[in-house]
């Protein structure tokens, strides 16, 4: 069992994550010309695969992992 002070996956309680990136197109002309205007960080639990997307503000990934793990 994970203690209340330890950060963990909200789904399974595992404490290890992986951070990836995805980019998506918007609407209108950016979609027509396949211009990727939206960027997101993807934080995934290494145990169960549960993932959350966070808009990339280029401030670093450590803050995003802290949000994912609570």
From TrEMBL:
Pfam families hit by this protein: Zn_ribbon_13 (PF09855)
InterPro entries, per database record: DUF2082_NA-bd_Znr (IPR018652)
Protein name per its UniProtKB record: Nucleic acid-binding protein
Species assigned in the record: Halovenus aranensis
Lineage of the species this protein comes from: Archaea, Methanobacteriati, Methanobacteriota, Stenosarchaea group, Halobacteria
